[in-house]
């Protein structure tokens, strides 16, 4: 009996202590991961979906600061889950767009620029840029609470 209780307790502790899959970082019941292997926006979204998530949506300034500082860490510009379709921007996970962090002069809304990346440069760190979807960039995946597969 003691062995059964101990093994189940260990399982529960692991699940509560590590709510995110390996290589993901937990933040407010969501899990984030920077993938440094460059991909187009569509390839990046597909890769995130295969892990049970989407390209990252950013709902408020606290999420923005976390993703820019802890996840991106100034490594390289990275795709996030915002895309322009039919003249308006939408998040891949369906969240409404009520927070943005556009860089100076952005979004430029140039015809072929409809996918959004987060700047890593020291001058524009964390700001957003609409750019061509077929460019290969690092990307940030997000798995929302209740969708993690580990436990």
UniProtKB/TrEMBL annotation:
Residues 27-142 form the C-type lectin domain. It comes from the Eukaryota. Keywords: Disulfide bond, Signal. InterPro entries: C-type_lectin-like, C-type_lectin-like/link_sf, C-type_lectin/snaclec_domain, C-type_lectin_CS, CTDL_fold. Pfam families: Lectin_C (PF00059). Residues 1-17 form the signal peptide. PROSITE patterns: C_TYPE_LECTIN_1 (PS00615), C_TYPE_LECTIN_2 (PS50041). The keyword Ribonucleoprotein does not apply. CDD domains: CLECT (cd00037). This is C-type lectin domain-containing protein.
């Amino acid at each position: 009996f003691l062995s059964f209780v101990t093994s189940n307790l260990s399982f529960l502790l692991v699940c509560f202590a590590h709510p995110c899959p390996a290589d993901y970082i937990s933040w407010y019941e969501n899990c984030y991961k920077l993938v440094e292997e460059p991909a187009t926006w569509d390839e990046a979204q597909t890769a995130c979906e295969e892990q049970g998530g989407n390209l990252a949506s950013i709902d408020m300034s606290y999420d923005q600061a976390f993703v820019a500082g802890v996840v991106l860490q100034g490594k390289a510009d990275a795709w996030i889950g915002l895309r322009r379709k039919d003249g308006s921007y939408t998040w891949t996970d369906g969240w409404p767009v009520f927070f943005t962090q556009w860089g100076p002069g952005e979004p430029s809304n140039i015809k072929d620029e409809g996918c959004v990346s987060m700047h890593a440069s020291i001058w524009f760190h964390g700001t957003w840029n609409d750019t061509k979807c077929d460019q290969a960039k690092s990307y940030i995946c997000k798995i929302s609470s209740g969708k993690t597969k580990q436990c």
